[in-house]
Amino acid sequence: MNDTTIDTTVLGDKIVRVLKTIFDPEIPVDIYELGLIYDVFVNEDSEVKILMTLTSPNCPVAETLPLEVEEKVKSINEVKDAEVEITFDPPWSQDLMSEEAKLELGML
Q: Where does the MIP18 family-like domain start and stop, copy by copy (predicted)?
């Protein structure tokens, strides 16, 4: 491994840690545990693409949440650029929530 190669796994873990600091305003659980993050792609140029959804298309933070995700991910030193793509396919459901999130919300 030469010095210019980044470890995308390590960077992926850092990105997940950052995502876990972002909360849905209506539910006291972070967006990662809620299952709003469908995928995180990191290429060898340290450019990040995040595929995420919202709890509903009418989500009150539909405008601001993706921007917050982009800003926070871009703030990681190793990240050159970040882009968030919103999808509603598949639509979010409570089944996507982690056990931790369900426990937190008293659903278990």
A: 13-86
Beta-carbon contacts of 24 under 8 Å, excluding residues fewer than 6 positions away, are: 30, 31, 34, 36, 55, 61, 65
Domain 8-87 annotated CATH 3.40.50.150: no
Residue with token string 């598949």 = 90
pLDDT tens profile 16-49: 999 999 998 888 899 999 999 999 999 989 999 9
How many other C-beta atoms can be found within 10 angstroms of the C-beta atom of residue 93?
Answer: 10
User: Quick check: 4 pLDDT over 70?
Assistant: no
pTM of the model: 0.89
Eight-state DSSP code of residue 36: -
